[in-house]
Amino acid sequence: MGCEITTRERAGVINPMYDCQPAGAQYAGIGMKDCIPLVHGGQGCTMFVRLLFAQHFKENFDVASTSLHEDSAVFGGHKRIQDGVLTLVRRYPDLRIIQVITTCSTEVIGDDIEGNIRYAEEQIAKEFPGRKVYVVPVHTPSFKNSQVGGYSECVLSTWKTIAKEKVAPTGKLNIFPGWVNPGDVQLLKHYAKEMGVDASIFLDTQDFDSPMLPDKSIHTHGRTTVEDIRASTGALGSLSLARYEAASTVDFLKKEFDVPGHTVSSPYGIANTDAMLRKISEITGKPIPLSLVEERGVAIDALQDLAHMFFANKRVAIFGHPDLVIGLAEFCIEVELEPALLLLGDDNTRYKKDPRIVALKERVNWDMEVVCNADLWELERRIKDDPKKYDLILGHSKGRYVAIDANIPMARVGFPTFDRAGLYRHPTMGYRGAMLLAEQIANAMFTHMEYVRDREWILNTW
Amino acid sequence: MGCEITTRERAGVINPMYDCQPAGAQYAGIGMKDCIPLVHGGQGCTMFVRLLFAQHFKENFDVASTSLHEDSAVFGGHKRIQDGVLTLVRRYPDLRIIQVITTCSTEVIGDDIEGNIRYAEEQIAKEFPGRKVYVVPVHTPSFKNSQVGGYSECVLSTWKTIAKEKVAPTGKLNIFPGWVNPGDVQLLKHYAKEMGVDASIFLDTQDFDSPMLPDKSIHTHGRTTVEDIRASTGALGSLSLARYEAASTVDFLKKEFDVPGHTVSSPYGIANTDAMLRKISEITGKPIPLSLVEERGVAIDALQDLAHMFFANKRVAIFGHPDLVIGLAEFCIEVELEPALLLLGDDNTRYKKDPRIVALKERVNWDMEVVCNADLWELERRIKDDPKKYDLILGHSKGRYVAIDANIPMARVGFPTFDRAGLYRHPTMGYRGAMLLAEQIANAMFTHMEYVRDREWILNTW
Amino acid sequence: MPMVLLECDKAIPEREQHIYLKVEGEDSRDYLPVSNASTIPGTLSERGCAFCGAKLVIGGVLKDTIQMIHGPIGCAYDTWHTKRYPTDNGHFNMKYVWSTDMKESHIVFGGEKRLEKSINEAFDEMPDIKRMFVYTTCPTALIGDDIKAVAKKVMQERPDVDIFTCECPGFAGVSQSKGHHVLNIGWINEKVGTLEPEITSDYTMNFIGDFNIQGDTQLLQTYWDRLGIQVIAHFTGNGTYDDLRCMHRAQLNVVNCARSSGYIANELKKQYGIPRLDIDSWGFSYMAEGIRKICAFFGIEERGEKLIEEEYAKWKGKLDWYKERLQGKKMAIWTGGPRLWHWTKSVEDDLGIQVVAMSSKFGHQEDFEKVIARGQNGTYYIDDGNELEFFEIIDLVKPDVIFTGPRVGELVKKLHIPYVNGHGYHNGPYMGFEGFVNLARDTYNAVHNPLLKLAATDIRDDQAVRFLEAAE
Amino acid sequence: MPMVLLECDKAIPEREQHIYLKVEGEDSRDYLPVSNASTIPGTLSERGCAFCGAKLVIGGVLKDTIQMIHGPIGCAYDTWHTKRYPTDNGHFNMKYVWSTDMKESHIVFGGEKRLEKSINEAFDEMPDIKRMFVYTTCPTALIGDDIKAVAKKVMQERPDVDIFTCECPGFAGVSQSKGHHVLNIGWINEKVGTLEPEITSDYTMNFIGDFNIQGDTQLLQTYWDRLGIQVIAHFTGNGTYDDLRCMHRAQLNVVNCARSSGYIANELKKQYGIPRLDIDSWGFSYMAEGIRKICAFFGIEERGEKLIEEEYAKWKGKLDWYKERLQGKKMAIWTGGPRLWHWTKSVEDDLGIQVVAMSSKFGHQEDFEKVIARGQNGTYYIDDGNELEFFEIIDLVKPDVIFTGPRVGELVKKLHIPYVNGHGYHNGPYMGFEGFVNLARDTYNAVHNPLLKLAATDIRDDQAVRFLEAAE
């Protein structure tokens, strides 16, 4: 009994959990309006990341490439940065933000990103007088960190480039949820509305779930504007919902513009959501309304139907983004699921000291492992060694075959979840998210019971 | 190719699709506030129906019984009606409506329901001067019709008893959705709100999904009040969304109080929802707002991802309430699913002439059967004869074992859906309902592909 | 004043006779609650009907038998998907119901022809099945359809089938209990002795009143196998129609649920001289005692001791883990009848749980005698409790967990009280040693559910405090 | 003016050289679009990189081979779960990726040790697998890691394994096409001829440039089986590493995708004298022609005719059902390269579809020669089309369906245009007779989707009218 924290011992990776830094940076870039990130690297670095986004959201997102070739490897990619930026500016008259995102190759080559950006900006100023395009240097070598850090880095760099001065107080609250789904963004907006809080969600990715409209217009991009970013310096506070994805920009706003910074545990599960709402209430002075008490009650009611009847004593393996994995583990304990394996997929050394991990470690009275810098082979190998080790898998679709081949029910959660329809549309955060995830878990278990003919008759009446 | 309409030829039923009339009447009764239906019959007629509701909603609903015994069979159940009503009135001081729901036994015995109600009302007047309790006679012999007719009958009888005079114009719109889920009621309220329409949903069953609250209060009952029912006579119109469950009360309001009556096809799928919104717009003079155009667009966008890739050429068997089955068949065609078998589960002879069925018959260019007065053995036998006859089953959980044993993916929809978590919470009507149902269908198919290892790899990227 | 008139019962004072509070020093034999009496109309009682007592509880358990319900559709629809008694042949019994789907014309002109047709159809559609129960329901009883005659006719025409008829319409008696009785007596009189079993052991018994809830029967069967005892008939868990026809050949009738099945044990004694031995199958001490009694009867005590020892070695440690954590928890039991007395002492002895209130739907006098004898002081013993009474009792005794059905479980959930399914179990089986560990585990999981604490929190509660702090 | 400068390309006028509109009467040979040239930065081109051309398109198809990617994690992550090439051994190839997970320190100090460790680990973890491809990526190529040396060392230490190395970092060449070339040439030079096949037929061939998309290879294999032709190696659909080492023993190389695999066929001819025969496997007429050519080579014409006759009997009616309903529909093809010329005439001949625009990601001059020769007048032929061009072209030609990838499919969906997956297929296989019926069916389902009509409706549109009517 008890919790062990280890690190992957193999050098190589078999089936990675996270993509590389530039991928995360691109994800941040598409979350802004009138923005096309420009990836400085080989074309594949863009092409496959765009495909990845399409797999998850069933949407196309615009990301450009500098199309690095051999000549750049030899002579440097300066010209390609400049051409890339200018071609974008020339062909997209509404464009206002371009993140120049570096990759492994261009970091190895050592291209002077800042210098080339300055040059490009001069060109823009000459060619388009009066037009302001923010060109943001984003240093995300693929051989450091992962998509998690890349996301954080791109948000921070964009803020540093655009949020240059303190504006007059706006009365708004900045909420930085980290890398979440449109369903989560909608949920946060709903909570803010119910509380009468004027909140800016950074990044506002609600339209990552975008419509087919009669006028054929396309709205598949973030809603966060240059103005929103500038206005964030006058907010009455910033709230980070993700330690590894959002906290850095909250810190930046605090240090540079004295915007009070707050951090809560990612709001997965009931107690974490309680803490978030209380924190919002504390920051804004707005009380939590009855409507949210009721919404909370409906969620708890739904969870209570499932917890001790179906979830108790079920051992769960969880993988995905670190803030999500930790939050899900906390949620699991609320509903009597036993988190037995947490996989965190990059070499960030701070995880081991994360107070939430420390608290989990102190709390569990069952066998639990936290594996840092893990790949999905860590999960698969444990199951190969002991096929009954886990009763449930929570994670993104990259781990689907572990579940399929080992015949373990799996609820898809996180990014990417390409092998189920519509998941990105629904929240995982908040009371509603906890409820929906529990429903999804239960229904995965129920379906499993039917397919393997294991007490499926119990579902006739419960 | 073409559609055949037949009727079950066997005398007996194996695995019924619908419950009996009194069950439907009870479902209507619980949809009202300060109301406890009183079933005049054996105790089982109440007990199991209450269990059925609990299976579906994971909630307790209050329904009383007159606890008919042998002596009543011989001497009549008068005393038990009177005692039942008075006991309820005495012990539940807030009670305002009691439906006295007959059953097969008490209809065979021929108890004078109206007479006994008059007697009970006199007793109430004496014992509780100034207190008004509506005691509603509901004649629902189990050997006629089914839960569908029983629901309709109880709503109508309640209206007849309470809606006695025309009130001043309220500017409201009466919407009678029929027997639907709380998720549908919430959806209809949302649409009305977006359109700026002041609508009364009859019955307002939103709280059939009710919370656990810190104060331990219980809200598991309908929200429709005596006042709402009275006010319905002053509405600017009534809209029926279900021909077999709601139209009769709309007709009553029209005939008795000149409330303009309107009927649209049940709003399952895009086109039917369009028609409903247009009808609401037409009745109320309120335009359809952009927000609903966008919501519609998101739904179509989601459906388009699934239709020709996964749904096309899939043959579907559908069973459940008649308005639902017909609506789902229409929805199926929109997303390229081929409705191949529609089962309608009682002896209502009007189904064959239903214009929607006639239209379907004219439209399909594949093999399709509509079986009236069907049981679930009709489905099972067809599959036993031809295991590949259907690719998908849409229906309620009473048919679950057909799908499990034949290894056919099944999406649960309708009433009851006890073998999946949370379904009652989500709409099936409207754009959102169509989208969620499509997601559920797709995910059932996807899960099936994984369990039977049938091209499950296609889901890696689509 | 051990009989209690609750606040909510002021308008129905006769309920005082049904609620007993056991008090130290008084002779509880003077204060037995009135039971097996007619329910007051309109009280929101928990009772079912006689038909369900026969069909749903006993007959419908059989794994090889069509259950033809002669009546309108509801009686079939409502007694389907409500039970958890699996079988080892794929749960045929839980997958199907059959109804003659009586309509008005059959009420007017009689339903016998329709019944005959429905019986023949059912056998035709399911050609592997050769056995059937036929039940009357309220309206077919009222119009006087002769189902026995119809069954006889079909049996003459189809010599390979056998049909049993059960005439207990829903209005018969005061609860499902009447149906148990009718079916028991009908079966012994009409079917027992019409077939001879194959005897494979020197020790034979019937196991009566156990319905294989979540595999109870199958778990206990492993004990009988290890003891070398042949069970001729399971009445009726995982049982077959023909096994039940052979009950007359057993040396011993072991009875678990005396309420539903004591009748047949008594008749087997009267008509065939087979001794009746009542045991409790729930709880470690009880189960061990039951095994000892059975083994003593057959003179195979050492086998029994070995079995008990092995089972204790395997399960006692687990039980004790839970006992340590359940000690002092307060439990209410609101089930049918006998489980009150089966459980009250076993959870006390084996788990340290205090049972603070019990309500029986259909227990008779002998059940209350037993449960009050076995139960504690300070505990409420209720006959046919109703919803308002439940609320009031909860307020009085504040249970930590309630063993009851799923619907009532949903009700008490709103009061932040967890339930364990006292009818169909949460995650059973619950009988036998392993089973009681399951019961302990489910109780533990129910009681220690973190959601209960969260539910009690009003997230607005400390707002005033927080605003104050924030202002400082 | 057959070369077209689109409105959106005003700022990048060099794009005029890449877009050709075929016009009646002009000699199209004078107007070949420039192809296989560097992409203009920032244009939102659809191109991938050389690494993916090698790993994802060709090497990763093999069903028994570890694909070790020496680089940072993204190159592995991104080339996983993006393809639809099943295998008959449980899709090992689609389930796993391997990476050396290069970190900064390895960039600084070199990654060869890490590669060696990763290779050994991979073989240790998956002891049933004895074959491996190792790929360089941009940074490991830039720092100059010697992957060949590492592979050699491991092979010496583990005599039961065989490793092939492929050095084509993402920045090599202008598109994935470079990777095809590097892998082809590397393989023929290093691996072909190192193993001898078992010959089981008088007729042997390699089938080259078919990657078993949704079972293409497996469907065609049923034809070769019926014809009695042994396929020594599938390059690379459902293929094995060792089969590919035996390619030198085939009597004939049949090439489907000349772009990805023509190199190896040419080398096999050059080095081993094996004749190359190019066929089209998509479309009824083409497939029949291909079978005839192959059978003619082996002198088994009558077998071929029998096969074709049987297949036509089975599938032609179905094809014609769709043809009737697809007649005159306008299609765009935006895929890699060769499918443009494989499909343009086959959909025209077999389905009556008009191809109105084609864009190739990585086609070379010979591809454009072929596609323009086979394509219609009035059609746009585009090299390396980008997003704004796509919008403009759609406006110009108004296609009813676009064959392209899922992401671009999602983009054009907003314009109410359905797509069919031109890379991985919607519901394939698409090769062969049955396959082309599948393509027809998917196209039909795409074009006749009722949602497209619904999407075009603005439910607010007739409000004014309705209000007027209502007022009357």
From TrEMBL, chains A, B:
Swiss-Prot/TrEMBL keywords: Nitrogen fixation
Q: Which PROSITE patterns does the record match to this protein?
A: NITROGENASE_1_1 (PS00699)
Q: Which residues cross the membrane?
A: none
The family database entries (InterPro entries) matched by this protein are listed as: ChlB/BchB/BchZ (IPR050152), Nase/OxRdtase_comp1 (IPR000510), Nase_comp1_CS (IPR000318)
According to the entry, every stretch annotated as the Nitrogenase/oxidoreductase component domain falls at: 20-445
UniProt feature coiled coil, ranges: none
Q: Is Cell membrane a UniProt keyword of this protein?
A: no
Extract the Gene3D superfamilies matched here: Nitrogenase molybdenum iron protein domain, Nitrogenase Molybdenum-iron Protein, subunit B, domain 4
GO MF, one term, reads:
nitrogenase activity
Q: Which family does it belong to?
A: Belongs to the NifD/NifK/NifE/NifN family.
Q: What is this protein called?
A: Fe-only nitrogenase subunit beta
Q: Which organism is it from?
A: Methylocystis bryophila
Automatic annotation (TrEMBL), chains C, D:
Listed transmembrane segments: none
Q: Any idea of its EC number?
A: 1.18.6.1
Q: Which cofactor does it need?
A: [8Fe-7S] cluster
- UniProt key word Transmembrane: no
What is a GO molecular function of this protein? ATP binding
Mind telling me which SUPFAM superfamilies this protein's record contains? Helical backbone' metal receptor
Q: Which PROSITE patterns match?
A: NITROGENASE_1_1, NITROGENASE_1_2
Q: Which Pfam families match?
A: Oxidored_nitro (PF00148)
Could you tell me which residue ranges the Nitrogenase/oxidoreductase component domain spans? 49-447
Summarize subunit and interaction data from the UniProt record for this chain.
Hexamer of two alpha, two beta, and two delta chains.
Tell me the protein's name: Nitrogenase protein alpha chain
The species this protein was found in: Methylocystis bryophila
